[in-house]
Amino acid sequence: MRSPPASPITTRVSPAAAPASPGPWCWTARPASTTANSPTRATSTSAAYSSCAPMRSPACMLRSPAAPAACCSTDPHHEALMPATLILHGSPLSNFYNKIKIALLELDIPFEERAHRPHSGQWPQSGSPTGKIPFLETPDGCVFESQTILEYLEDIRPGASRYPADALGRAHCRELIAYLELYLETAARPLYGAAYWGREIDDATRKAACDAVTAALIPLARRARFAPWLCGADYTHADGAAWVHVQTVVGALKVLGLPALVHEGLPQLGPWLEMAAERPSIRRVDGDRREAARKLRG
After folding, report:
1. Is residue 252 domain-shared with residue 123, that is, in the same domain?
2. Which of 128, 161, 194 marks a domain boundary?
3. Tell me, what's the pLDDT at 33?
4. What was the pLDDT predicted at 43?
5. pLDDT of residue 117
6. Given this model, what pLDDT does residue 195 score?
7. Are the beta carbons of 61 and 27 closer than 8 angstroms?
8. What per-residue confidence (pLDDT) applies to 249?
9. Which of the ends of the chain has fewer CB neighbours closer than 10 A, N or C?
10. In whole angstroms, what is the distance from residue 149 CA to residue 147 CA?
């Protein structure tokens, strides 16, 4: 769901654990500054963003504002392989934004978050030629489209992949992501306006969308392994993508009075969703999503 952010902020993030845990995966949110060319320069969701020029910024998150810069990874190649700073633009209310945020956390890549409304800037200043979110700002330029961003993250973080080890397994993982987005999430999208923004929806549109969601669950059940993760024994990017999209679909159906439609169509999703919700990266993202929704409601 591509939605406006709750408030214009800049957040520095290091890979997340449980929000209550102050361990090495800590994070800090702080107001944007006005320093030119700084990764924490002031931003506005209503103004065009500066072009994606190289930035002078630390490679890793600071444990606290007073602490010395330190890399959050123990990999000796971690700092050398990755760009100085990555900035994720978008909103924690967007499932596609959260797909990338989970991947950043899973791959142990330091990054910042910057609030950006869809279609709020003009290309190239906005970073996305379509005006959509998310897009990723790198020292060398911007990348848009969530799956392309995910592949970029994999390329800059060798040795920490969240794809299966074998070629066929990687293909099946990408296949699941594509299927979820092209068929399940897209099928439910006509419901989002009514469920999340209070717009009117007629019975025919509601029924057609629900029928399409039900139909989309059948091939998903055939491909997903649930052993216990979607691609087998190990967590993969398919699980992160599936969690953000399935939660969005289930949430919309719940608001519209059909909370059990997905679970009845694919019973394995219930236990899998509960397991995925306990993963530190997903807990972090879900907490931020809920907080953004709370602020939006006022």
Report:
1. no
2. 161
3. 33
4. 33
5. 82
6. 96
7. yes
8. 98
9. C
10. 5
For residue 41, the 8-state DSSP code is: B
Domain residues for the domain of 112 are 1-161
122, 195, 247, 277 from 132: Cα distances, Å: 11, 21, 21, 27
Distance CA 252, CA 20 (A): 28
**Residue recorded with tokens 């050398």:** 80
Residues 152 and 8 in one domain: yes
- The amino acid present at 144, given as its one-letter code, is F
How many Å apart are CA 34 and CA 230, to the nearest integer?
44
Residue 114, beta-bridge partner list: 10, 89
- Strand order across the 10-13 sheet: 27-29, 10-13, 111-115, 87-90, 135-138, 141-144
Q: What pTM was computed for the model? A: 0.75
Residues 111 and 198 in one domain: no
Distance CA 95, CA 109 (A): 19
What does DSSP say about strands 111-115 and 10-13: parallel, antiparallel, or unpaired? antiparallel
Burial class of residue 16 (count of CB atoms within 10 Å of its CB; 0-12, 13-18, 19+): buried
Please tell me the predicted confidence (pLDDT) of residue 10.
46
Asked if residue 244 is part of any domain, the answer here is yes
If asked whether residues 64 and 173 sit together in one domain, one would say: no
Beta bridge partner(s), residue 111: 13
pLDDT, block means (10 residues), the chain with 298 residues: 42 45 31 32 30 33 29 44 80 97 97 88 76 93 96 94 97 98 98 95 97 97 97 98 98 95 96 98 97 90
- By DSSP bridging, strand 141-144 and strand 87-90 are unpaired
Q: Residue 144: CB partners within 8 Å, gap ≥ 6?
A: 127, 128, 129, 130, 132, 134, 135, 136
Tokens 């978008």 belong to residue? 90
Number of domains in the chain: 2
